[in-house]
Each structure stands twice: as structure tokens, then as C-alpha cells.
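Long-time lurker. I teach an intro course on protein structure, and each term I like to show students one example going from raw sequence to a predicted 3D structure in C-alpha cell notation. This year I'd like something fresh instead of my usual example. Would anyone be willing to generate the C-alpha cells for the chain below so I can use it in lecture? Attribution to the forum is fine with me.
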Amino acid sequence: MPTIRRKFFRNKRYFYLEEQVRIDQKNKKIQVYLGKNIPNNLARYRIKLAQKERDLIIANLPKLFILEKIFNGEQISKIEVLKTQFKYKLLGLSHFATRQLWTRYAVQFIFESNAIEGSKLSQSEVKAIVKNKYIKKTIARKEIVEVKNSIKVFPVIRGTQFTLNQRQIIQLHKLLVRGLGIASGYKKVDIIVNNKPTTPVGRVRQEMKMLLAWWNSNKTSQRHPLALAADFHQRFERIHPFTDGNGRIGRLLFNWILFYFGYPPILFLYRNRQRYFNALDQADEGRKNKWYWYCIQVYKSSINWLLEWPA
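-- Reply from a regular --
Happy to contribute to a lecture. Here you go:
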């Protein structure tokens, strides 16, 4: 978070907007001169500082991230530029505007994620439920409960109390499916998805243990956060640990990983659900390139969507 620093030179006072960027285990200081007094409007100074931060990150990509075939310097640079833009956009928003932005994202995320799983609600209907406005009597109670549960779950993954472990993932699922007649806890029957078997009931807890061990050993590996989130999501969906709600929980956890590293969230769209499923299917077969490219494309579009508000 940028701070305003005061410095003295020959008994005169000067102000700087300053940020610390972690590079190669050390904090690198960047700053922009504000003047002898603090300006009322810092917008143009934040733009200058954002540019300095972007330039510093791009110049040090090999020190920050493991560069891979798909998550290469070109693609990571594009993501880092967008991420920095979003960071400084948030800094320029009022508390009220920030809340509005996250509410807008939550509504869109719930609409898209639930629609991928078969919900028939429109975006305006989801928004009405989230904001406790008039709801048509023809809307099924189950659809309303799904949305209300989702809006309760969303702050959990954006907060600081959630930890990626089996107990808390099960609790997250329990909150998501409460009142829907869906069994909470790990599945009790084997499930076939798209004509493919998922992890057998007797192996779920062990597979989840292995997945979380993978996460704990890789979260400090310097792989790009999007690459880690993409791998975790694909592995989680292949296990399919719950009777229902696996896709929604998986996409929430995808975002939790991004938030964990200080990155903006991703938004998978209902209209592209077949590409999403096809890319996951190929990744399940060991061919991950299509899945990685798809995640990069979706992520860049997601951040640009966030940056467009307000118009």
C-alpha cells in the first residue's frame, strides 16, 4: 500500500508518494515527488507510481516468477500490467465505490457460476436477490437460496480467516448448500461427470490430502499465482469431492488462491462453459496447454472487465 513520506533537506520539507515492491527477497523502494505540500488530488501521482511499479516488475520477471512454456514472460507481463492497474484503481476509489465494485463482481460471479451449473436466473434476478429487492414469485425457492448462500460465502474467500485445508473446504461447501437438500461433507456415492469417473468415494479424503500437500509445497515455488490456481482448480474438479456444488466451490477456491497472493479475481462466463469444460477435460488427460491458455485469456478479460467500472 503506497504511503506518503516526508523528507527534509536543508531544513525544507518535501513529500513523496512511496511504495515497496518485493524483488528477490528484498524490498525495492519506488517513489514519486509530490512537492512541498501534499496535493489534494493524488490521482496523477498514483498513475506515475503505477508506471514505475509496472516497469520494475517487468524488468525483474525472472526473479519474481518461474517462466514456463505457457506462463512465459510475455503473458505474465500482460497479467502483471493489468494487476497493477487494478491495484491503483482501487486506491483511487472511495470506500463506497469500492463496495459497489465488489458487489458488482459478486453479482456477476454468482450469476455466471450458478448458470454454469444449470441455474436459470437472469443477472437482474440475481442482483435483486443479492440486494434484497423485489423478487418474482415465480422464481423457485431453491434458486433464491442458492444465491443467498453464495453471497454469504463470497466474503469468506475475500477475508483473512479462511485457510486452505480439508475442514474449512468442507465448511465452505456446507455454507454453500445449506437448505438445498444436498448432503454436506464428502460424497457418499461415486459420481460420473461427462462420462468420466471421478475419484472413488473411498479415495476422496486421501486425494484431497495429497492435493493440499501439493498446494503447501508449491505456494512458495514462485510459479505465477494464476498457474497455481489453474492447476489447483483442475485437480480439485477431477477429484469432485462433493455430491453437488463442486464447480461452484472450485471456482471460489480458484479466486481464494488469487486473493491469497494479492491478485484480482477471475470470472468464468456461462456463455463459454463448453470451452471451459473441454479445456478441463484435456487437462485431466495430461494435456494442460489448452487449459492454461484458456485461463490466461479469461483472466485478462476478467481484469479488464473490472477496470471498465465505472465507465
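Some talking points for your students: The chain has twelve helices and five strands. Residues 18 and 126 are 41 Å apart (CA to CA).
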